[in-house]
Amino acid sequence: MGSSVILPAPGQPKTGADPTFKTAAIPNLVSFAFQKVPPPSPIYVQRDDILVAQLQTVLPSVTVSITGRLLQVPFPQAGQPDQPGISEDDALASLPGYIVPFRSDTPLTSAITKGVTLPLSEGYLLSVQANDISGNTLTRGQTYVRIYLVRGGGNVTVTPPYQVLVEDYITTLGSAGWPGGLLRGPTESTGNLVEALPANPAAGADFVFSFNSSTVFRLSSVTATLSTSATVATRVPRLRILDGLGKTVYQAGPTATVPASIVAVCSGTPDNMAVTADTTTIAWSIPPGQTGNGGVFWQLASSTLNLQAADQWSAIAVVYEQWLVG
Fold first, then answer.
1. Which of 4, 15, 128, 301 has its CA 20 to 30 A from that of 275?
2. Domain ranges of the chain
């Protein structure tokens, strides 16, 4: 019985997949365009537009860095007679735009508002960011940033903005920027919790503490120690809040009087205080939510009836929440 062997056809093997093979994979249904894509920014600026940043801090020294990116449009290019340049229409149609970063670092000092201007070129504004690069702003309520666009010409620091991009506090670990930033006034949200330790007054004098005139504050507590001399007299330590004109807007009486030769700790909070006969622990009541308007020096002061020449106020501590003036 004979046998036969099936030999492959002579020649080179065929390339590509076997036409009889069928895959079980599902092809992609989504594709992406890489040409003639709308720019990723809704803000188109021109050459006479100016970016303005208003910066303010209560700290002795801070450096704020304003950074950003601008997608510039292509510009026409000049040429030679034998090599013509590229017209504006051809540039817009054929040349790609390019991203230009910009940066401005500004040192700040307390109670001074600085305005920083950054000229722009024609194109799409992609991002703007404000950062504290000094590392001194540790909490909210200390350094405030407001960034906006104005049209060129005139004094930009007084020209009304035609678009505000971001306004908020920044910290060492928290920046403010656009897009995605917030529009919050200086007194919105939480402020900076401050513990002030005023110097002791002279013997026989009441203490006086002045709040920062460039801030708005909300009083949390005050504590001070009154050491009375051996001179026989009944001291009545009162607490006063005075406005920027020296007018008393609130006065609190003590829960007990202080006799001679006593060291009395006097404390005030917005909570209701129980009356006590302890002459070494004096309580003051402060109005809940007591605030002071910025722009003037508000003061917190003791007003002690029958204060003697050798009596001494000491260990003064004032705790309050603070915001910059808007």
1. 301
2. 44-178, 192-324
pTM of the model: 0.76
Q: For residue 222, give the nearest of 285, 267, 274, 265 by alpha carbon.
A: 267
CA 123 remoteness from chain centre: 28
At the topology level, CATH places domain 192-324 in: Jelly Rolls (2.60.120)
> What letter does residue 93 receive in the DSSP assignment?
H
> In angstroms, what CA-CA distances link 227 with 23, 252, 302, 304, 311?
93, 20, 14, 12, 6
What is the C-alpha to C-alpha distance for residues 320 and 290, in angstroms, rounded to an integer? 10
Q: Which of 326, 57, 54, 53 is nearest to 172 (CA)?
A: 57
- Amino acid identity of residue 2, one-letter, is G
Q: Is the peptide bond before 270 cis (omega within 30 degrees of 0)?
A: no
% residues pLDDT > 70 (the chain): 81
Structure confidence at residue 156 (pLDDT): 67
Lookup: tokens for 10: 């002579």
**What is the average pLDDT across 70-99?**
62
Beta bridge partners of 108: 62
134: left (phi > 0), else alpha (psi -120 to 50), else beta? alpha
The CA distance from 223 to 290, in Å, is 16
Residue 228, number of CB atoms within 10 A of its CB: 25
Query: CB neighbours of 113 closer than 8 A, spacing ≥ 6?
Result: 54, 55, 56
Tell me the pLDDT of the chain averaged across its residues: 85
**Which of 141, 156, 145, 138 shows the shortest CA–CA distance to 108?**
145
The letter for the amino acid at 82 is D
Token pair belonging to 192: 């900076």
Cα dist. 289→142, 215, 269 in Å?
20, 16, 10
Residue entry with tokens 């292509």? 74
